[in-house]
Structures are given as structure tokens and as C-alpha cells.
Amino acid sequence: xxxxxxxxxxxxxxxxxxxxxxxxxxxxxxxxxxxxxxxxxxxxxxxxxxxxxxxxxxxxxxxxxxxxxxxxxxxxxxxxxxxxxxxxxxxxxxxxxxxxxxxxxxxxxxxxxxxxxxxxxxxxxxxxxxxxxxxxxxxxxxxxxxxxxxxxxxxxxxxxxxxxxxxxxxxxxxxxxxxxxxxxxxxxxxxxxxxxxxxxxx
Length: 202
Hints:
The protein has 202 residues and is α+β, with helices and mostly antiparallel strands. The protein has helices spanning 8-11, 15-21, 109-116, 129-136, and strands at residues 26-31, 34-46, 73-78, 82-89, 96-107, 153-156, 166-169, 183-186. The protein is built from four helices and eight strands, in the order H-H-E-E-E-E-E-H-H-E-E-E.
């Protein structure tokens, strides 16, 4: 695979633009010497003045990376059981990020299956933010990684997704700003998560 690595300039976009632009890009993760690759098929945008964003209440040790430059990993632990992988966007001080909600496995499926355990359906391997982090071995140890320079965790150009194949809806699993249509996904892709949008789907 010789896709080009995404540049700092690419990440320095608003979270809304970045969330849509990340669809089709490839997530690369080296785990125990094996390259794991997944095509991003679902994202959610979170902005600085967004009540649903972790950065809404200001800079904290947890959200410090969101206030930095675009192109860094932001990994957090939620509900006492799941890790979630985000990509920071915009420029230093703006505190925007995109949650990677689901990927389609491209390479390293065997390792992913070992990390995930027995599954009822193939698409359950990576069709949700917690599932993809488990499948890719992403934990808080991968927080604040520079995705532009890292050899362990990074994104590449992957595949171009036409606008006609992209849909959007309100975000999933939030209790504020539920009306914002800031979730983006590739239509009819079996690895898109099955979570229920928080507001009315567009």
C-alpha cells in the first residue's frame, strides 16, 4: 500500500469539513509488528463552541490535545469500558476534533479478530468507535500521537468517496446539541455503526 500520508495542512480544517473529508481515508496502526489498516466509513464532528464537545467547558488536562494543532490523536475512555479514537482538526487554540466511529477492515483482519474475540457477524469487527479501538489495539497510550510524523499510528489518502455516496445525520449517543447533523457516513457500507441518531435523521 503506497497511499500518501495525510499532511498537517489537511488536518487544519474545521471539524465539519474534516469529518466529511476523512471518509475513505485509511487508518494505519502497527500492532505487535503487524500493520492493521481500515477504511474510515463513519465520523462525527465536534467543535469548540459545541456543547457536545469535551472542549466546550475549556482547556483541561484531558482536552489539552484538542486545543493544539490539527493532526493529533485524542483518545479517551468512556462508560468505564470503551476507548474512542479522535483526530484533532483546525489550528492551535480552536479545539476541534473528529470522532472516528467505524472503519472497514483492509489489512490485518486476523489480528483484529484475535483482539475482538468471537463475533456473531463479520461487520461487528469494527462497526463502532469502541469496537474499532479494540480491534486496532488503541488505548489511552495512543493519546496525543502526532499522526503526521508517527510510524505507529497515522492516516493515508486511501480511496476517494464521491459526494453521492456520502450521507449525514445527527450524532449518536449525546444528550445536548442533538439537532446538529454532524455525523457523516458512506451509504450502504456494512461497517457503518447501527447506533440510533440523537435527533431527526436528514
